[in-house]
Structures are given as structure tokens and as C-alpha cells.
Amino acid sequence: MKYITRTIFSFLVVIIPLTLMAGGENILLQDDFSGLKPGMFSPGVIGAHGEYHYLEEVAPQGNWVVSCYKKFQSQRAWRVVVEDGEYIMRQVHTPEDQYKKYTHSIVIAGDELWKDYTLEVSFAPDKKTEDQSGVLFRYQNDRCYYFFGVKGSKAILKWVNNASAYQKPDEKILAEAPVEWQSGEYMTAVITVNGDKIQASIDGDVTLEATDQTFGNGKVGLMSDVPTRYRSVKVTASDKAYAAFQTAKKNREDELQELRDANPKPVIWRKLETPGFGVDRNLRFGDLDGDGQKDVLIGQIMRHGPKGQYNELNCLTAMTFDGETLWQKGEPDYFKRDLTSDVAVQIHDLDRDGNNEVIYTMDMELVVADGATGEVKYKRKTPKALPPEDKFPNILGDCIYFADLRGNGYPQDLIIKDRKSHLWAMNDNLEVMWTASTAEKKNSGHFPFAYDMDNDGKDELAMGYRMYDDDGTILWDLGDELKTHADGIAILNFTPASQAEPQIMYAAGDEGHLRLDLDGNILKHQYVGHVQNPSVANYRDDLPGLETVTINYHGNQGIVHYFDSQGDMYLSTEPAQHGSMMLPVNWTGDGEEYFVLSASTLEGGFFDGWGRRVVTFPADGHPELCNAVLDITGDCRDEVVVWDQYEIWVYTQDDNPKLGRLYDPKRNSLSNYSNYQATVSLPGWSE
User: Fold this and answer.
1) Which of 241, 312, 472, 680 could, after both became Cys, cross-link 434 (CB 3.0–4.6 A)?
2) 79-84: which pairs have CB atoms within 8 A and are 24 or more residues apart?
3) Dihedral angle computed from the Cα positions of residues 476, 480, 483 and 487, in that order, rounded to the nearest 10 degrees
4) Which residues pair with 202 in a beta bridge?
5) What does pTM read for this prediction?
6) Tens digits of residue pLDDT in 436-471
């Protein structure tokens, strides 16, 4: 199965100078790091900001890119230093014991199509400890690779292939032997891979050999759990291997060009400026003024901390996509634009009068305002804050979600919550109907999902690893079994053409990817890293039912997993080293959707269900920080909104409008918009 990753586009020109070496060896990569600027190579402390924002700090530099990081110091692990006139790639971090078993300081280079090659690296660990230091080869992602290096007084050759349990890597030692080396002194590791044969040596004194077929191709990397200097890297291939790589590369490029030529090109539909009131990923979309056209609501935030705790709205600005400001509430402040959480604001016709309201919290008040004017229709104090999240007398509001808990046939009830511990179910008069607490576990999850599982006309509510009945009764709870909070939840029939019973899908952080039946029994559990931001859509016409794509963050940034309708993983790629909302985009209208990785010209674009980058953004200076997907122009196909704190651009297709019968998927309501939503795109067609 063919697929592509970001390094294909970012690095080829630099790392393949096409130099023919004596003896028929061809240089794929040769780097002494002198082309890099001395200083911090790692992105610095960006934390959760990279979960759904594209940050330039995580982009490749020269031949290399930081593959993963976890806590603060690991985000500052890699530096370029100059010692005695030599440029050195230096890893300075020693991870805490609880993290080093499943995430490591790694930088990578190369091409996933590299198969048979020789890797030569000069490196010097600062200390001889039981922590590993060395190199990676045939790298698939930062959870799947071969490693060769030193660990204490041993040379180790092993593979790592995801995990066998929670935060427990699935790894196998292929060979090991005693080795003499001195702390701080350089040694040279040489690894040759040819088919299933692996030979690895250190300074020519210790040679390990193995036969293994786990990984047949992949990039190279530097990895250490102890401060280490890397002085030089060289990758060479024989004439035969080099020719095979060139053929595979050309086939890939030809295939991609054909796919891109067949797709509509993104063109600008609108540009809006947001001077002083712009924000990160905190926009809402809906018809605010009743003219039948979607508008945009921009919410700046006040951060009280620590980290993502205790955030609230500071200013709301309502605009049309023609650039008209409808109203503004609060005082805009350019410096109140960053966020790493949700805040409580939605657009919804709460009173069912045919016109949307804006429902939000500000100054510990829950407000229902007229969508067209911003005038308050009614409000009340937010619920009283409860320990352990009681820094303020009343909750600030972490998110708002609408559901039909009373059986009105319409989502007229709302869920409001604090960050991790409590939720409140309210009716449309903002009266509390019931409450729930997970304070003892702190795993309420980020955002709920409602579904009428028993067909009684009333929604059940999945929040975290609990299922609540419409009256708040706990139907089942997996909070004692699963160790991290839920990052995304969806309930649906994954094979809509059949009468199959719906299943529950969890993007479950470090617990990976889960499938449950409606009674809470775990049907599938794949330990594939810190899984987030799932979306479900028809990504593959050739597969039955709907496919799910997810992306990893927090320790394994950028790994994309693809699951079929049965919940089995059929593909894994690593197109970039950042997070994404993974929003499905109905770009062609032909029934098969793509997803948006990011708005980056270099690394982003639309990817298909085979992992191929089939649509790229033009290099036109557009904002790359955030993106959203929705049909704005009305031809059933989606527009893509991209923005930063200063401006909003909207892209549509170069063949818009398109006439005839078009794919028109049914998605989550824009009234339940979140940075933690599991996006579900169910099949449908225009008349």
C-alpha cells in the first residue's frame, strides 16, 4: 500500500545530492551539522499548543526535525553547539524514569522509501549509564524502528514496534554484546541493512548481526536518553539500492502529481482582518444575523492558569464573511489570544424561535445572547465551583455541549463542565437538572458525545469513560480500568449500509484507540501512543463502511493511524511532527473525503485514506496557525478556513460552484464545536 510522509517534500532536495562515490556507493545523506544555526534546535516549550495549532517552531531545519517530546525539559532537549570549531548536534536531556520507557529524545532525517543502506554515525554519550544512546534506522515513526547503540557496558541491537500494554513498548533485543567505551569520547556506529540482514558495529571492534523482517524500509534518526554529542552522520547506498530508491521515488512523485492534477485547486474566496481581536483556535461558525449565511464568532480568552486550567472568555466579536462587524462584547486585547483548551461558547438556536443565540460564559455568568446583536436575552450565575477545581467561587466554564436529555426531539439541553472534575446538565432555562463528579479520578475527559442508544427518544451521554442515562444515572464506568482521560469520543454505526449496532470509539490518550459496544465492553484496544482528535468519514471507497483517522501527541507527535470500519488498523504514517484536528473535508463532492493535516504550505494540505498528500495549499502568504472545515458557499462541498491572530482566509475550489448531484455528508452540529471533538461525517447526497 502506497503512502507518503512530510519528509518526502521537505528534505529530498537537501539530503539526496546524487553524488556517486568510489566503489559504487551513493550518498543519500551526509551531514556534519555545519549548515545549522548554533542554538536551540528543539522547538522550545510549546506544550499543548501544538495539539491543534501549526507552529513554525516544529518545522524541519536543514535535514533534521525533532520527532517527539514530552514534558518541558524534553521540549528543549536538542541544541546545535560549536566545540573546537566543530558543529555538534547535542542532546542535553535525561528523561524521568516514568517517561523514558515509552518516549525518547529523537531527531530524524531521510526518506521512508530508503531500504538497503549503510548508516555511519559518530557520537559520544556524556556518561556511561543504563540509559540508551545511539541511532535509529528503518524508522517508521517514533514508536516503530530499529535501534543500535550503547546501554551501560553493552552494545544493543533491537526493534521497537508500538506497545504491548499501557506505556509498555513492544520491543525485542535482536543481539547484544559487551563493549568498551569511555564517557565523553566519540565512537563510530556503522549499521548496514540489506533485505532482512542487519549488521551493526561500534569502532569495528564489536559487531552484532541479526536476521529480521519487522521493518523493510525507513528513515534514520538519533536517539538518546542520556546527554550525548553527535558529530557526523552519513548514509550511503549501493548502485542497485540507489537505483531502486530512485525508481520508487519517481513512481511516488508521478502518482502524487496525477492525484493533485485530478483535484480542484484551493483558491481564495474571502480574506478578513482581525486587528486586535484575533485569536488562536477559538472561532465558532453559524448564521448569526438570520440571513441564511454562515458567520464567524471570534472569542479571545483570559488565562488564569496554571497551564490550561481556569480559562474564560475575555472578548467576543461577531463578523460576517463579508467583513462586517455585527457586534462586540468585552474589551479586545491583542495579548489575550493564546489557548490550549476549550472555553464555553457556542452558536445555537436554544429557544427554537428560528434564530440562533450565542451561549457563553463570562465573568462567572452563563449568558444567552441574541446572535444578531449580542444583546443579553437572559443569564444566570454559573454553577458553584467544587473541589478540587474551586480557585473561583463559580466555574468559569470549560465547554458547552447541547443534547436532547428530556426527549423534546431537539437538542435543547446543555452540558457545562469544569476542566476535569465535574459536569452539570441544564435545561434551556439554565436550570440544573443533574450533576456528576469524577473529581476522585480527574478523568471526565475533554468533550462529551450524546446518542440515543436505547431508542427512547432521549440522549445518553458519553463523558470520559462513563455513560450517563438521560437523568444522570451512571450506566457503566471504565474509569478504574483506563488510566488516562478521553481525548475524543464518537458513537455511530460504522457500516451505515447495514443494520449493525452502533459502537463507541475512543481516542484515549496513552491508552490508544478503543472500540466498545453500547454496554461498555471493550472490543478492540490498540496501544498506539497518545491518540487524539479522531475523525470518522468515508476516506476509502474501496473499503466497506467508514474509516477512522487519529493523530498522536504528547510523547509521540504526528503519528497518524488509519482504522477500518471494524476498528482494525490498516495503515500508519508520520507526515509531520505536530498535532491536528484531522477534520474531514468534502473537497470533490464525489463521495470520498480527505482530511486536513494543517494549513502549512511545507508540511500540510489534504491527505486521503491511503496517506497521500493529494491537495497542497498555495504559497501565497496565508495564515497557517489554525484551520476549520465547513460548507460556506452552499454547493455541498466544503470550504477551508485558515487563520491566525491577525487575519482569516477562506479557501474554496477553483471549480466552485459545482452543479449536479454531490456528496453532502451529515456532520456534528456546528453548535457543538470543540478543539476536542470527534468529528463524524455520515454519508449523504444532495437531491
Assistant:
1) 472
2) 79/39, 79/40, 79/41, 79/42, 80/33, 80/36, 80/37, 80/38, 80/39, 80/41, 81/38, 82/38, 83/229
3) 20
4) 189, 206
5) 0.94
6) 998 776 677 899 999 999 999 999 999 999 999 999
